[in-house]
Amino acid sequence: MTLAAVAQRLGVRSPSLYNHIDGLSALRSELAVRGLNLLQQRLEQAQAGVQGEAALHAFAQAYVAFADEHPGLYEASLRVAEPGDEEWQQAGQNLLEMIKALLKDYSLPSKEHTHAIRGLRSILHGFCDLEHKGAFMQPISKTDSLIYIMNAYIAGLSKKVIKSQPSG
Questions:
Q1: CA 125, 70, 21 angle in degrees (round to 5)?
Q2: Which of 72, 80, 116, 156 is deepest in the core (most CB within 10 A)?
Q3: CATH number at residue 108
Q4: Is 11 a domain residue?
Q5: What is the reported pTM?
Q6: Phi and psi at residue 18, in whole multiples of 5°?
Q7: Tens digit of pLDDT for each residue in 34-74?
Q8: Could you give the CA distance from residue 146 to residue 84 in angstroms, rounded to a whole number?
């Protein structure tokens, strides 16, 4: 993404963009924060009134739906926050806190909690990425696949079969 490309897409001259944003890094920040905030709103709505496994399934379905409906904002939300960009860092932290709250019922040790968060994010991003790249062309429901994957993830959390391997 370049400011020239953005200006061309908007049908304005590049210098005109600087009346609204303070350069490319500011634009990336605004897109990331907007994406993270919209994703969080969607996830909160999906989980309203549900708990436990149902909340994890609702989270997964809403996450994938958001990525499908807003591919550009979704992609922007995946970037790591720029150093010193507190709004961006806070938006990312809010999403992590939401995931932590989803996993609280599983009483995982701190280190395994981190692995479980990374695992959930990896599952969902991998699913979205493969879907966007056309890898799910089989005549099997993508929704059913997501439910199957989430059931396997939840079963692993529930049975605590996921153990960290020693580093080294």
A1: 110
A2: 116
A3: 1.10.357.10
A4: no
A5: 0.84
A6: -70, -10
A7: 999 999 999 999 999 999 999 999 999 999 999 999 998 89
A8: 36
Domain boundaries, position 39: 21-159
- Is 166 part of any domain? no
Rounded to whole angstroms, the Cα distance separating 73 from 69 reads 9
Tokens representing residue 86 in the block: 């507190």
HSE-up (13 A, CA, CB side) for residue 142 = 16
Cα 119 to Cα 104: distance, rounded to the nearest angstrom = 15
Residue 125 near residue 78 (C-beta atoms within 8 A): yes
Assigned domain for 26 exists = yes
Report the length, in residues, of the chain: 168
3 assigned to some structural domain? no
Q: Which of 10, 9, 3 is nearest to 28 (CA)?
A: 3
Query: What is the full DSSP assignment across 61-77?
Result: HHHHHHHHH-HHHHHHH
**Could you give the CA distance from residue 164 to residue 111 in angstroms, rounded to a whole number?**
8
The SS3 of residue 12 is coil
pLDDT band at 109 (very low <50, low <70, confident <90, very high): confident
Q: At what angle do helices 24-47 and 52-69 cross, to 10 degrees?
A: 140
Q: Is the dihedral of CA 96, 90, 81, 60 positive or negative?
A: positive
Distance separating alpha carbons of residues 32 and 3, to the nearest angstrom: 16
Do the Cβ atoms of 59 and 43 come closer than 8 Å? yes
Q: How many domains does the chain have?
A: 1
